[in-house]
Design brief:
The chain contains 8 helices and 8 strands, in the order E-E-E-H-E-H-E-H-E-H-H-H-E-H-E-H. It has 319 residues and is an alpha/beta fold. It has a single domain (9-316), classed as Alpha/Beta hydrolase fold, catalytic domain (Rossmann fold), CATH 3.40.50.1820.
Length: 319
């Protein structure tokens, strides 16, 4: 399918109980080095009682894909937003970057940022002029890098469990850098993890949302992404280091922001989240009690906490 081709039914993976947002359309476009990338665009709802507020830019985390965010997109539409969601290079149904499609690989976060910017450019005049960010985990690192380098400007930014630090030891960091230097970057950074069950998962306490993710992968195994590569680890370390440079985020200090943190976080580094949050003068930090890493896929009570804080951020930004 060519650059910007219209969507077909097989472009989305459909399962019962996971309806796409109203008017959803898949847009295929070319990323760096001609790789085929997938994004979803859903316009603001056409109802008289919902005010049009802008475009919500949804940036998923590592291993995630568009269909996992259908519910989030519907929530945003109900609040008056058009929505765009990305399958990052090497994830979802976007073209994979290695012969082994199961590995999560990237050489530089510049590839992710380029995919984000090209996708937004592809929307053109279809996108409302007011942009609000909603970024989760690795997506929060991608979006913040685009903002740090002044290539993405938004009116407000909500970060869910942002990956602003990775919990690996000092010697592991240098081992990864040496391994990549000597040409082993495409190897997995760790052995495969044991199969996840709902009882031992570290992401959510909601069994239905946990099961939906797995049903989607069962319906289309190509959606799955496994272990990260050594190159992904080094690229992540490199971009995260940039965030903590003394003046790196000064131009974002007054941006109305929300930084949502989970008390049961085990996937990303909590101390880095709080340290970087202090760089945002106009940020409200929301600590979601009892939440796992995936706050947006948590129980109704915890999700409602997030959406209440999201609306507060939008009011502060006059969106």
């Amino acid at each position: 399918m060519g650059d910007g081709a219209a969507s077909k039914p097989q472009d989305l993976v459909m399962i019962p109980g996971n309806a796409p947002p109203e008017g959803a359309e898949v847009i295929w476009y070319q990323g760096k080095n001609g790789k085929k990338l997938r994004m979803l665009f859903a316009p603001e709802p056409k109802t008289n009682n919902i005010k049009t507020r802008g475009l919500a830019i949804v940036c998923p985390g590592r291993t995630e894909f568009i269909e996992k965010y259908f519910e989030v997109a519907r929530d945003l539409q109900a609040r008056g937003f058009a929505v765009v969601i990305f399958d990052w290079p090497g994830q979802g149904l976007s073209e994979r970057l290695l012969p082994n499609p199961a590995l999560g690989h990237i050489r530089s976060y510049g590839v992710y940022v380029d995919a984000l910017l090209r996708g937004l450019e592809k929307l053109g005049k279809r996108a409302p002029s007011t942009w609000v960010l909603l970024a989760h985990s690795m997506g929060a690192a991608i979006a913040l890098e685009a903002m740090r380098t002044r290539r993405l400007k938004v009116t407000a930014a909500a970060f869910s469990a942002p990956m602003w630090g990775v919990p690996i030891w000092f010697f592991q960091r240098w081992f990864a850098r040496l391994a990549r230097f000597f040409g082993f970057g495409a190897l997995p950074a760790r052995p495969p993890l044991p199969p996840e069950t709902f009882e031992n998962n570290q992401l959510t306490h909601d069994p239905t949302r946990w099961r939906t993710y797995r049903q989607l992968i069962e319906a289309e195994p190509k959606l799955a992404v496994g272990e990260p590569t050594i190159a992904w680890v080094v690229a992540s370390l490199n971009v995260l280091k940039e965030f903590f440079e003394p003046a790196a985020l000064d131009h974002l200090r007054n941006l109305p922001s929300l930084i949502a943190l989970a008390t049961e976080e085990t996937i990303v580094k909590k101390s880095a989240q709080r340290k970087l949050a202090r760089r945002f003068k106009e940020a409200k930090v929301l600590t979601v009690q009892g939440a796992g890493h995936e706050i947006l896929m948590e129980t109704e009570e915890r999700r409602n906490e997030f959406w209440k804080a999201f609306e507060d951020m939008c009011r502060r930004a006059k969106v």
